[in-house]
Amino acid sequence: MKPTALPAKKAGIIFLWLLAWQAISLSVHNSIILVGPLEVVRALWVQAAMADFWKTIALSFGKISLGFLLAFGSGILAGGAAWRFPLLKDLLEPLISLIKSVPVASFVILALIWVGSENLSVFIAFLVVFPIIYINTIAGFMSTDPKLLEMARVFRMQGKKKLLYIYRPALRPYLISGCRVALGMGWKSGVAAEVIGVPSHSIGEKLYMAKIYLSTADLFAWTLVIIVISALFEKFFLWLLSLAQEV
Amino acid sequence: MELKVNQLSKSFGTLNVFTQLNLSLHSGQVYCLMGSSGSGKTTFFRILLGLEEADSGSMEGLKGQRASAVFQENRLCESFTPVDNITMVIPGRSSRSRKQAKEELLRLLPEEALSRPVSTLSGGMKRRVAIVRALSIPCDMILMDEPFTGLDENTKRTVIQYIKKKTRGKLVIISTHQEEDVALLNGTLINL
């Protein structure tokens, strides 16, 4: 198959599904139960014309991204420290297991009491992303080639150079796969937290309003916004990580 | 430096690698370690480098001495260029190290190979990078575990000249399976 045929095939498949979706929505003929793609685009168009739409996206994006970035940085630092000092790893293990097993909804309600609704998504995105990055960082460090570490010992390589040339390449695939999972999870749980906490000017608030007013078109439109922003942020962040490898 | 190996023994479980090895080695000399596979050449190198402990015996003259090595496997960072691989082991600032690394590599490798990731180089080229790396750091003792593996005859002779030039005044121990290498290196034969 020609390389250009692949995107065309993909677009064709997506078009077929959109067509099926439109056909089903027409046959259901009830805009509360199901709306078609054309109505979703129309709802999105109406929303995009309002200044509040962009403010909502910017605030939600900023808060969830901040939570992700804080978790990314501290997850690497804590993972690195836990790998270096096994006692710290043992000490953190129950805490990480707890964060992983407690349902996000429980944390959201607890966080509502602790930090209030305005910064709720920062906290929840952090809480969901941190263990993923922490665990992947430890796994990455542990995957370092022991033969290269012996080489570094014989050549008395400086710590900074060891980190740059030996640990960084070992860590990179683990961080990339961790980020792929964490980015999606961070966005989903961040928005879910906003739906529960309903902070003003947030995507979660808009989804909540869509539920209150039974506006399925708005619900679909905002869901589309979440998917697009999440995908763009993932692409941008993974591109940044690939740049870090080349430095 | 003078290195004295006294009654050195090493075994792995029931397998005796060598027993009561005695050697007296001096700076400025090249020693060629020969022996069949499994005779303990690599293990001896690992003990000298401090990567393995002997079961019994002692070594004198190693304290405070800095060692360098060509490992049996190349042990290069494959995603980085040959220049990076040399720069990473040279102490100090990278900008000065890079210039030094490039100059040294050009003695054994074509210029086009210097900016490619090591993973794209041939086996012989990788071996030469490992040799240049071992000879690029300040040291008193150089251990080379079968350094000529994968090199054709002409390249091997060029490499031997390079080794001779760069190791003057140092203690050099090279393991090899080729008896002719002893003569080419003006070395002293040690049978293990």
From TrEMBL, chain A:
It comes from the Bacteria. The keyword Transport applies. Residues 53-237 form the ABC transmembrane type-1 domain. InterPro entries: MetI-like (IPR000515), MetI-like_sf (IPR035906). It comes from Lacrimispora celerecrescens. One of its GO terms (cellular component) is plasma membrane. The chain crosses the membrane at residues 12-36, 56-83, 95-116, 122-142, 219-241. The keyword ATP-binding does not apply. This is Nitrate ABC transporter permease. Pfam families: BPD_transp_1 (PF00528). It is found in: Cell membrane. SUPFAM superfamilies: MetI-like. Belongs to the binding-protein-dependent transport system permease family. Keywords: Cell membrane, Membrane, Transmembrane, Transmembrane helix, Transport. One of its GO terms (biological process) is transmembrane transport. It is a multi-pass membrane protein.
TrEMBL record, chain B:
It holds the Pfam family ABC_tran. It comes from the Bacteria. InterPro entries: AAA+_ATPase, ABC_transporter-like_ATP-bd, ABC_transporter-like_CS, ABC_Transporter_VariousFunc, P-loop_NTPase. PANTHER family: ABC TRANSPORTER ATP-BINDING PROTEIN ALBC-RELATED. This is ABC transporter. GO terms for molecular function: ATP binding; ATP hydrolysis activity. Residues 3-192 form the ABC transporter domain. Keywords: ATP-binding, Nucleotide-binding, Transport.
